């Protein structure tokens, strides 16, 4: 049986993990919506959405990783955006600050992983059979032909909250 001290420690641990997931997914949503999709004239919309159109060319046998995965600089930018909150938490608890940053980075890797495999044909890993993956893939597919909706890649939570979700 847990004492009150252990229970409160467990609650703080879970809250730190949840905060890291929420914060990193919000960063992903905002960057995707406001930085990459300001207008149809932006390079991302003109290139990525043309190559991987949501209706006729969403999945390809061979894909150029540069058109699907974030660059090293973009991933580094995300980590820099995670740092202020991670440092603030670190000042209270080193362990929790580091945990928060690790959770944010893991979410960023999840987002890169699913985005790459949303567009790649012939997948054999077990994760592709999961309901979560299938729902996220359809969510993102809709985004590719309706680029003003469904900005979340690793989650659709912020699309629901900010009413940018579109279902077909």
Task: Characterise this structure.
- By secondary structure, this protein is mainly alpha-helical.
- The protein has one domain (4-161).
- The protein contains 7 helices and no strands.
- It has helices at residues 4-35, 43-51, 65-68, 72-92, 94-119, 131-145, 157-161.
- The longest helix is centred in the N-terminal third of the chain and has 32 residues, at 4-35.
- It is globular, with a radius of gyration of 18 Å.
- The N and C termini lie far apart (48 Å).
- The mean pLDDT is 90.
Could you give a short description of this structure?
The protein has 168 residues and is mainly α. It is 67% helix and 0% strand.
User: Which oligomeric state applies?
Assistant: single chain
Q: Number of domains in the coordinates?
A: 1
Instruction: Specify the number of helices.
Output: 7
Q: How large a portion of the residues is in β-strands, by DSSP E? A: under 5%
Q: Gap between N and C termini, in Å?
A: 48 Å
Global mean pLDDT: 90
**Helix percentage range:** 55-70%
Q: What is the N-to-C succession of helices and strands?
A: HHHHHHH
Radius of gyration: 18 Å
Structural category is mainly alpha
Secondary structure: number of strands: 0
The largest pleated sheet is described as:
none
Give the overall shape, derived from the CA principal axes: globular
Query: Would you identify the regions where 5 or more consecutive residues have pLDDT less than 50?
Result: none
């Amino acid at each position: 049986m847990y004492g009150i001290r252990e229970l409160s420690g467990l609650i703080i641990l879970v809250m730190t993990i949840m905060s890291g997931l929420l914060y990193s997914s919000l960063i992903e949503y905002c960057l995707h919506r406001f930085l990459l999709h300001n207008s149809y004239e932006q390079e991302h919309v003109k290139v990525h959405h043309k190559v991987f159109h949501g209706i006729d060319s969403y999945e390809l046998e061979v894909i150029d990783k540069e058109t699907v995965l974030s660059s090293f600089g973009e991933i580094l930018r995300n980590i820099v955006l995670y740092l202020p909150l991670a440092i603030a938490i670190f000042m209270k608890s080193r362990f929790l600050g580091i945990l928060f940053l690790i959770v944010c980075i893991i979410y960023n890797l999840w987002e890169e992983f699913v985005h790459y495999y949303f567009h790649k044909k012939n997948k054999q890993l077990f994760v592709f059979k999961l309901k979560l993956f299938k729902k996220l893939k359809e969510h993102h597919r809709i985004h590719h032909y309706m680029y003003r909706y469904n900005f979340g890649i690793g989650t659709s939570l912020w699309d629901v909250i900010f009413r940018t979700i579109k279902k077909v």
